[in-house]
């Protein structure tokens, strides 16, 4: 027969495999592997630790399993071209591990992890420690900064367009004497709190600062920023359309809202810039009418709350 190493592994017969097992010091398994299960060279290369542990082989000695598997891996590494030609995947641990059910149990003890170097879960990226354990590697996401820049430009444009629409809507505020505020069972029954609106804006500022802190410390800050900009810009764009096509009365008598004419287009643009630079908040001295029923404050508070709570 000659030594097994003098013949290509793919041409090994069970007798060659038996001789190789004897040379590697596994005489006790010659009868099981070669005589009973007729293991040849090709099937030897495709052997995995799962095969050794599970039926029909079911080797019981852990040390023998580990030593035999190391010898097989050494043989696999020496015959990478044969494995590739046979279409058997090899990841440096064991071939065909991705095609085997790795959820087997050790010594019949269910729920206990098997001390194996070939039990990395399928379909995930894992890194092996020197002790044979695995830790999951988090898949790195491409920040794609160009998308973040594009979404930022988009939301700035939408905010500017919103400010201009607010100027147009302000000029179309219905006369409160003809179109009084809509009745409200709850708000008409409780006293008005003068500082409530300012408090809502203060809450928005606090949420914005918390969001900036989360964004600064988050590893995927670029992705989160472009998601916020994209959603915020789209919601405000829809709000612009709704405000423009619908004229509603002001929400309360305490709001002294009357239609104001800002003159020519240049005056309208100046007013829009003032609204945009002040973020449309009364805390910055900006007061508008006609958009209270389409509250931008509600949009911002809701959006910031969702992003802060979901992204922490």
Automatic annotation (TrEMBL):
Kindly state a single biological-process term from the GO annotations of this entry: ceramide biosynthetic process
- Which region is the signal sequence? none
Q: What is this protein called?
A: Sphingomyelin synthase-related protein 1
Could you tell me one molecular function GO term of this UniProt entry?
Answer: ceramide cholinephosphotransferase activity
Q: Name one GO cellular component term.
A: Golgi membrane
Which family does the UniProt entry place this protein in?
A: Belongs to the sphingomyelin synthase family.
Sorted UniProt keywords: Lipid metabolism, Membrane, Sphingolipid metabolism, Transferase, Transmembrane, Transmembrane helix
Give me the segments passing through the membrane: 149-173, 193-216, 228-250
Q: Which PANTHER family match?
A: SPHINGOMYELIN SYNTHASE-RELATED PROTEIN 1, SPHINGOMYELIN SYNTHETASE
Q: Could you confirm whether the keyword Lipoprotein appears in this record? A: no
Compartment annotation: Membrane
Task: List the InterPro entries.
Answer: SAM, SAM/pointed_sf, Sphingomyelin_synth-like, Sphingomyelin_synth-like_dom
**What membrane topology does the UniProt entry give?**
Multi-pass membrane protein
Tell me, in a sentence or two, what this protein's role is.
Answer: Synthesizes sphingolipids through transfer of a phosphatidyl head group from a glycerophospholipid on to the primary hydroxyl of a ceramide in the lumen of the endoplasmic reticulum.
Tell whether Acetylation is among the UniProt keywords.
no
Reaction(s) the record says it catalyses: an N-acyl-(4R)-4-hydroxysphinganine + a 1,2-diacyl-sn-glycero-3-phosphoethanolamine = an N-acyl-(4R)-4-hydroxysphinganine-1-phosphoethanolamine + a 1,2-diacyl-sn-glycerol; N-hexadecanoylsphinganine + a 1,2-diacyl-sn-glycero-3-phosphoethanolamine = N-hexadecanoyl-sphinganine-1-phosphoethanolamine + a 1,2-diacyl-sn-glycerol; an N-acylsphing-4-enine + a 1,2-diacyl-sn-glycero-3-phosphoethanolamine = an N-acylsphing-4-enine 1-phosphoethanolamine + a 1,2-diacyl-sn-glycerol; an N-acylsphinganine + a 1,2-diacyl-sn-glycero-3-phosphoethanolamine = an N-acylsphinganine-1-phosphoethanolamine + a 1,2-diacyl-sn-glycerol
- What sequence ranges are listed for the domain SAM? 12-78
Main site of residence?
membrane
């Amino acid at each position: 027969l000659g030594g097994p190493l003098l013949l290509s592994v793919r041409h090994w017969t069970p007798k060659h495999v038996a001789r190789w097992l004897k040379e590697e010091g596994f005489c006790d398994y010659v009868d099981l592997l070669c005589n009973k299960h007729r293991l040849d060279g090709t099937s030897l290369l495709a052997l995995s630790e799962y095969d050794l542990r599970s039926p029909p082989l079911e080797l019981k000695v852990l040390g023998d399993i580990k030593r035999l598997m190391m010898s097989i891996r050494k043989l696999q590494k020496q015959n990478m071209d044969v494995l590739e030609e046979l279409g058997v995947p090899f990841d440096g641990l064991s071939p065909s591990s991705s095609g085997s059910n790795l959820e087997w149990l050790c010594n019949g003890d269910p729920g206990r992890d098997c001390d194996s170097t070939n039990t990395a879960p399928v379909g995930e990226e894992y890194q092996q420690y020197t002790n044979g354990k695995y830790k999951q590697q988090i898949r790195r996401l491409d920040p794609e900064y160009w998308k973040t820049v594009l979404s930022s430009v988009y939301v700035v444009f939408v905010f500017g367009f919103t400010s201009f629409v607010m100027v147009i809507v302000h000029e179309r505020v219905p006369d409160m004497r003809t179109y009084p505020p809509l009745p409200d069972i709850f708000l008409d029954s409780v006293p008005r709190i003068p500082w409530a609106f300012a408090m809502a804006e203060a809450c928005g500022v606090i949420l914005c600062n918390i969001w900036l802190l989360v964004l600064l410390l988050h590893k995927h800050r670029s992705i989160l920023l472009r998601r916020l900009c994209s959603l915020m810009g789209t919601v405000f764009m829809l709000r612009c359309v709704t405000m423009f096509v619908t004229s509603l009365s002001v929400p309360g008598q305490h709001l002294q809202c009357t239609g104001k004419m800002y003159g020519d287009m240049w005056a309208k643009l100046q007013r829009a810039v003032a609204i945009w630079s002040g973020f449309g908040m009364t805390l910055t001295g900006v007061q508008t009418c006609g958009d209270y029923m389409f509250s931008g404050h509600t949009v911002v508070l809701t959006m910031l709350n969702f992003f802060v709570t979901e992204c922490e």
